[in-house]
Design goal:
The chain has 172 residues and is mostly helical. The protein has one domain. 65% of the residues lie in helices and 7% in strands. It is built from 6 helices and 4 strands, in the order αββββααααα. The strands form 2 sheets. It has a two-stranded antiparallel ribbon. A hairpin with a 2-residue loop joins β3 and β4. The chain is globular. The N terminus is likely disordered.
Length: 172
């Protein structure tokens, strides 16, 4: 009888074994992992880029009367991505940090703009305060030691899926 490798991988972690005559749960059976990453972590990595890209697009398109409907769709996409995340505060502050870095780079590369300075200040101040006072957050999952190939591929796939969702949202 043929058994799928995925099923073997998932059921192997749930097996009990005996140690010294008593039944002990496998330590790994308590955590849901895939490629040595917690599934909640992988979900948050996948939802980071849709939240950031859709938030930036919504903020830039909502004020324009001709693009307001597309901006509202992007805002809904960003809200859904944030609601689906396990660690909402972490995703939110990560998005703030990304926007602050982009605004500072824009100030360095392009001529001075008070609008960009305001964006940098409004996104950078909460990010820096969170970085200062939220040093050891209690997360629902363990952060990996390094950002590996799985994380990079998942981020790239997340960006591609976000762009595809934008394509679908822009169609009338």
């Amino acid at each position: 009888m043929w058994v799928s490798p995925v099923r073997l991988l998932l059921t192997a972690r749930l097996v009990k074994y005996t140690e010294g005559g008593r039944s002990v749960d496998n330590v790994e059976s308590r955590s849901r992992t895939l490629f040595s990453r917690d599934l909640n972590y992988l979900r948050d990595v996948a939802l980071f880029w849709p939240f950031v890209i859709a938030s930036v697009a919504a903020v830039s398109w909502i004020p324009s009367p001709s693009s307001r409907q597309l901006g509202i769709r992007c805002a809904v996409l960003a809200i859904v991505a944030l609601l689906l995340a396990k660690e909402k505060v972490l995703i939110f502050f990560g998005g703030l940090g990304f926007c602050a870095i982009q605004a500072v780079l824009n100030l360095i590369v392009h001529p001075w703009s008070w609008t960009m300075f305001t964006v940098a200040a409004l996104t950078g101040a909460p990010f820096l305060l969170a970085n200062r006072y939220w040093r050891k957050p209690k997360l629902a999952y363990k952060f990996p030691n390094e950002f590996g190939a799985i994380d990079m591929l998942l981020s790239f796939a997340s960006i591609c899926a976000t762009l595809f969702l934008f394509y679908l949202a822009a169609r009338k």
